Structures are given as C-alpha cells and as structure tokens.
C-alpha cells in the first residue's frame, strides 16, 4: 500500500500522506523523503495526527447528519501552518498534510487518482478472494451437496446412502 | 534515480514543449514546468514559470507553480546541506540551513538546527542565529514566553559580540513591534553609541522620546500582543467602525442570489445570520455550520497548525465553504465551485465582526 502513497508524498508541498481506518488507526504512512530523516518520532506523530483528523471527520459527520447530508467525501482544513486534506473511500480515509502556501486544489487530482487506484486494487483482491471461495471445497463434517468443481460446473452429490436404500436411512 | 527520471520524462517534456510552441497559454506553460519538475529539473521548471509570468503577468496558476518549484528547490538544497553538515560542518552551512528552514516556515526545525550549532560551536554567529530564529518564532506565534525567549537570546548574542550592530538592531525592531517604547529608546541610544550620527537612528530616537508618556513595560507589551494577536505597527482594521447586521445582510443576499447557492451564512458567537433556507431548516443549518466551525477551530489548535483560514467539505449535498475570522465567519453552501468573486466576498465577511444583537440564535436574513 505504501507504494501507492509514496507518489503523493513526493508531490511538492506535501508533507505526509497517510491511509487511515475509519476509527483512526494508520494503515500506511508515506513521509516526504527528507522529513523521515528529520523527524525521528514520526510514527507517534502519525498516530496522533490520524486520531485527531478522524476525530474531526466524525465531528463533521455528526454535524451534517441533522441536515440529511450524506457523509462528506472530502474535507479540507486550511490553517496558518499548513493544511489537512481528507478524502473518504471505501473502508478508509486518505489523509494528506500540506505545507504552508500549498493549495488543497493542487492535490485534488492526485488524491482522486490514488483513491481510484486503491479502490481498484481492493476490488481486484475482492474478486480473487470470492473466486477462491467459490472453487474451494474445504473438507468439513457435512460435505456441500452443491459443491462447485474447479472447472466451474456444479455437481449434484446425491446421498448415496438414501439412493441405495440402506437400512437406517 | 534523477538520471533515470530524466530519461523517462524526456518524451513527455518534448510533447509539452511542442504544445507550448503551438498554443502559448498559461496552462501550456504550467504543463511544461510540471514536466520539468517531475523529472527533477527544477531550475528549468522555474525558468519556464518566469517566462510564462512575463507573458501572462500575475497568472495565479503560474505564480503558485513558481512558488512551489522554489520551495522544492530549497528542499533539495536542504537535503544536500544535511549530508555535508553530517560530514564536515562549517558555520556558513549551518547558517544557510537555518536560513532555508526559516524561509520554509519550519521554525521549530530551524531552532533545533541553531541549537545544534550552538552546542557544536558556541560562538557569536551561532548565538545570533539562535536569536534570529527565536525572533522569527515570536513574530509567527506572538506568545509572551516566545517574546521573552527571543529577548533573552538577543541579550546573549549582544553579550557575545558587543560591537556587532545586528543583535541590537533586531532587539530594537522587536521592541518597536510590541510598543515597549521606553526600552526601545534605550536600545536606540545604545545603537547611537555604536554608530554615532546615523541620521535614521537619531530620527528614531527623537520619535521615541515623544512616545514615552504611555509606554508600557516589556512584559505588559508582550501580554498585550499575546492577547490581541497584533503588533502595534499592524493595521487595526475596521475596529473603529461598528458594523451591524444591516451591513452584513446585503453581502449575504448578494452571495445567495446565484441559482447554485443554497445558503449563505454569517456566524458570530452564538448568533447566525442566514440567507436562503427558512424555518427549521435554517436553524438546523445554522447549528450544523456553527458546530463544524467549532470543531475545526479546536482540531487546528490541537494539531498545532495555527490560525484557521478555511474549512471546506464536499459530498453528495454539494460543497460547504467556511471562511473563519478571529471572532466570526462567513459560509456558503452551494452546488458549484466557489469562484473568485464569491471567495473574495466570503473572505470579506470573515473579520467584519458585526454586532448581531437581535437576541435570537438564528436570524433569517430576509
């Protein structure tokens, strides 16, 4: 995931890019190259930042809910010492910290592109995992009566005991 | 890596160059500059921006791009400096590093670097740089403790180099900014002793003599700056003019007249003036915007990001822009983009500090 975030962190004026779970836990963090060397305790800062930013995002959700507004997809907080830009996506939030004098509009396209890329990769893995579930026929105490064979054909497993009319069935 | 990036970007740069030759517009200049920047040819990127700015003077896109490229250049230089400083530190390199960090607005890091320099070579230059960094920090944050720290660093720098005018001049500038006239006059007198007959200093000394009547102490002056957030030489804005809700309503009406604007709001304290929605919807809207504003302010404070300039949220509902001032804020909820004219109007609303004495929480501006 970090290789998807690194190009964002390499954009001029971007201090940090981060993918955060909706409950405020960082999934992946990419710092500007020289920032990693400078700030030794960046991991802690990242966690605190993620928690505070998601806290604000939750506040936004609560504030807009009475207006019957859906959850905001993009939120920007522009301040004297930089900006925070958040972009909501499926199951996560993409967060960028911008330096002073950088407009959040400058990173809009790159953020949208990154979100699309992450969502595409997630969709791909979902498809793969669902196809794996479909073809596998794990051994279990009760065999699946409509098991799907690897070739995709559904094979009807008849209850041999019943068909052969054995006693006790 | 840089070389590889250049090779990979060669084709893109060529096509951007051809496009610029065919259609010399700001967008084409920006595209070429961006391609150069992407292949880490920052000097060329800056040259293209400057060329574009000569042809399209004041173009926002090119101005912003030039600023970002300069910033990237400084960051690149900083990375190189850091490597050299680790191997063979020299005073000129420490000084350049601190200067770049101050220019980039990374005052905390500049202070760390200056302190590292003081630890390595405790000389007058390192002390002066530390004083300069602390002075810059005070100018940015305006806290009383920061002011005292800057003055103490300046005193130390003066002590190390008694014949150097720079720390004393810096001290005079600081004292003038906070309005500590008595101490400023004393500092001007010190400077005149070092530089007798300097006309500018003599003029300043005489003007300070006239202000001694209402001169606060350094501590009082620092406290005032901390409380108001303003230096004495900064404009007082429109404080003398008391604005009322009547002066805000026409601006709100003007903002809300476009078809894509759902609502325009002015928030001050617990009162909200709203143009657009009516009745319960207006009340809900006012409460929502107030809550977003409060949350944004507290988040910015907790993150240590300084004064808040803008909050923007987007979703299926459209876009909501909030431009907060120190005590009030303007907001627009619309479907489309904000646009230059609306942005200016919104920024004009923030900081008006209008007296909203209707006694109601939400006042629908009819």
Q: State the CATH architecture of the largest domain in chain B.
A: Alpha Horseshoe
Overall form of chain A: globular
CATH superfamily of chain A: Dynein light chain 2a, cytoplasmic
Radius of gyration of chain A: 24 Å
The radius of gyration over CA of chain B amounts to: 26 Å
Number of helices of chain B: 15
Largest beta sheet: strand ordering of chain A = 2-1-5-4-3
Helicity of chain A, in percent? 40-55%
Looking at CATH, which topology of the largest domain in chain B would you report? Answer: Serine Threonine Protein Phosphatase 5, Tetratricopeptide repeat
Mean pLDDT of chain A: 75
For the record, give the distance between the C-alpha atoms at the N and C termini of chain B, rounded to a whole number: 62 Å
Greatest interface and its residue counts? A-B, 41 and 41 residues
Compressed to H and E, one letter per element, the order of chain B equals: HHHHHHHHHHHHHEEHEEEHE
Overview of the structural elements:
The complex is a heterodimer of chains A (169) and B (366). By secondary structure, chain A is α+β, with helices and mostly antiparallel strands. Chain A has one domain (2-131): Beta-Lactamase. Helices cover 41% and strands 20% of the residues of chain A. Chain A has helices at 2-9, 33-38, 42-64, 108-135, 160-163, and strands at residues 14-20, 26-31, 74-79, 82-89, 92-98. Chain A has a five-stranded antiparallel sheet. The longest helix of chain A is centred in the last third of the chain and has 28 residues, at 108-135. The model of chain A is unreliable at 36-44 and 147-169 (pLDDT under 50). Chain B has helices spanning 2-22, 26-38, 42-55, 60-87, 91-103, 107-120, 124-141, 144-160, 165-178, 181-194, 199-210, 218-228, 245-256, 279-303, 340-349, and strands at residues 261-268, 271-275, 308-315, 318-324, 328-334, 362-364. Chain B has three domains: 2-77, Serine Threonine Protein Phosphatase 5, Tetratricopeptide repeat, CATH 1.25.40; 89-228, Tetratricopeptide repeat domain (Serine Threonine Protein Phosphatase 5, Tetratricopeptide repeat); 245-364, Beta-Lactamase, CATH 3.30.450.30. Chain B is built from 15 helices and six strands. The chains are: A alpha+beta (169), B alpha+beta (366). Chain A binds chain B through residues 12-13, 32-34, 37-38, 49, 52-53, 55-56, 59-60, 62-64, 66-67, 69-82, 84, 99-104, 106, and chain B through 37, 64, 67-69, 71-72, 75, 78-79, 82, 104-105, 109, 140, 284-285, 287-288, 291-292, 295-296, 299-300, 302-317.
């Amino acid at each position: 995931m970090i290789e998807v975030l690194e190009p964002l962190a390499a954009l001029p004026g971007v201090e940090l890019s981060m993918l955060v779970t909706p409950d405020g836990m960082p999934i992946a963090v990419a710092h500007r190259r020289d920032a990693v060397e400078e700030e030794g305790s960046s991991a802690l800062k990242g966690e605190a930042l993620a928690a505070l930013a998601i806290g604000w995002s939750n506040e936004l959700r609560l504030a807009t809910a009475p207006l019957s507004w859906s959850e905001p997809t993009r939120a920007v907080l522009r301040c004297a010492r930089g900006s925070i830009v958040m972009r909501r996506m499926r199951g996560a939030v993409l967060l960028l910290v911008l330096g002073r004098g950088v407009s959040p509009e400058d990173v809009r396209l790159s953020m949208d592109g990154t979100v699309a890329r992450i969502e595409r990769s997630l969709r791909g893995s979902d498809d793969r995992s669902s196809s794996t579930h479909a073809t596998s026929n794990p051994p279990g105490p009760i065999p699946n009566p409509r098991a799907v064979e690897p070739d995709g054909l559904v094979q009807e497993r008849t209850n041999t005991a019943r068909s052969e009319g054995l006693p006790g069935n | 890596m840089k070389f590889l990036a250049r090779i990979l970007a060669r084709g893109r740069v060529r096509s951007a160059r051809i496009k610029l030759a065919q259609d010399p517009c700001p967008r084409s200049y920006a595209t070429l500059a961006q391609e150069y920047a992407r292949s880490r040819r920052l000097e060329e990127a800056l040259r293209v921006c400057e060329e574009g700015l000569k042809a399209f003077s004041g173009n926002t896109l090119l101005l912003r791009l030039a600023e970002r490229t300069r910033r990237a250049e400084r960051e690149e230089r900083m990375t190189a400096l850091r490597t050299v400083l680790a191997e063979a530190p020299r005073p000129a390199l420490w000084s350049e590093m601190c200067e770049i960090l101050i220019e980039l607005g990374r005052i905390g890091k500049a202070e760390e670097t200056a302190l590292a320099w003081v630890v390595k070579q405790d000389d007058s230059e390192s002390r002066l740089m530390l004083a300069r960094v602390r002075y810059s920090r005070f100018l940015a944050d305006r806290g009383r403790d920061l002011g005292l720290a800057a003055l103490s660093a300046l005193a130390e720098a003066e002590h190390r180099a008694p014949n150097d005018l720079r720390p004393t001049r810096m001290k005079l500038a600081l004292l003038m900014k906070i309005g500590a006239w008595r101490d400023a006059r004393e500092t001007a007198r010190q400077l005149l002793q070092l530089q007798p007959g300097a006309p500018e200093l003599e003029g300043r000394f005489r003007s300070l003599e006239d202000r001694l009547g209402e001169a606060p102490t350094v501590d009082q002056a620092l406290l005032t700056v901390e409380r108001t957030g303003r230096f004495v030489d900064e404009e007082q804005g429109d404080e003398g003019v008391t604005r009322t809700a009547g002066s805000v309503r026409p601006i709100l009406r003007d903002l809300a007249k476009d078809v894509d604007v759902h609502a325009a709001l002015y928030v001050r304290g617990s009162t909200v003036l709203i143009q657009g929605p009516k009745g319960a919807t207006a009340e809900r809207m006012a409460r929502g915007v107030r809550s977003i504003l409060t949350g944004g302010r507290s988040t910015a404070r907790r993150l240590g990001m300084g004064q808040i300039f803008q909050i923007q949220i987007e979703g299926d509902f459209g876009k909501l822009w909030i431009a907060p001032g120190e005590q009030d804020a303007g907001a627009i909820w619309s479907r489309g983009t904000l646009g230059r004219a609306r942005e200016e109007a919104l920024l004009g609303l923030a900081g008006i500090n209008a007296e909203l004495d209707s006694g109601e929480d939400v006042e629908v501006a009819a």
